[in-house]
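Human
Can I borrow your eye for a moment on a structure tokenisation matter? Give me a protein, with the fold worked out from its sequence. Write it directly below this note and I will take it from there.

Assistant
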Amino acid sequence: MNFLEPVLARCTDRTVLAKENPVLPSPQSILSNDFLSEQNLIGVSFDYFIDWTSNQLNKDFWLKCPFESTITGDLSHLSDDDITHGLRGHQKFMELVAFSSANACSASAIVFDDCHCWNDEETSSIIIARWPKDPQKKKGLEISRLRLSQVKELIKFRSGGPFPIGKKGLQYGTSCLECHLSKTDALWPGDVDLLLCGKSSMKPIAIIELKKHTESSKKNFRQQKLSNYYPGEDGPKYDRLALLSQQISPGRKIKIFTLYYSTLRSELSVRLEEIVGTFGSLIGQQQTSFNITVRDPVSGYRKVIEEIAKHSN
């Protein structure tokens, strides 16, 4: 199967990508597992549910796996064996499976054709491939084929009810499916940008939230801090991360960091802020700034990860 990388783009015109710094690579492109492995770390990212009636984390983590239907063919033509074989070659899903295995969780690949029009929710098809099918042996994929209307009901059930954000929905999203659902009362679950883990143990050590600063931001780059957004427009996002940090590893709270970066050509640095506190009462600590040079951006990010690792042990 030819899986596609989810791309943040404008919901009304998917050819318009989210802005990036024109002279520096994005943090996402630098913080790959090839890079992190130098420091005996590995990173996973996924979408996750919080049941807001109980503030409980659902430990079945989702990974969006859109695919190219012009090459692979329609979902209805794919057998369970085709899906299983394809996902075995999906590196990010296999990393999520390894993480889930080490942390008593499960991992679900959400397979869909994102070229599809999602308006007809009764004929729109989505595959959920959940690992493990056999929890005792930690093996196999349980494959379900659902209509979009059924997926919406599942989302609302796991979220503790319907959660509309308004008829306009998201301005930018990582898929047409996510954009479509943002106009309904069944929002796609939020994500963790990067969960750092020990390379051999796969145990989590830190959560990194990537916060983009643009020319339309109300504050300049050096004024970026948690209190600009929390509590407020990003309150639910950070409270979700707080619950993830408190519940992902029983008996141990995982540290949270925000890494601020800018799309402005003139801003050649990133800022790291540790977030402390608990659900509903988070605060930002003193920030550290790191220079990111055009010639060698990797060195700057290496110092960022060293700083996070130092404070997370």
Observations:
- Residues 61-190 form one domain.
- The chain is about 25% helix and 30% strand.
- The chain has two domains: 12-40+199-313, 61-190.
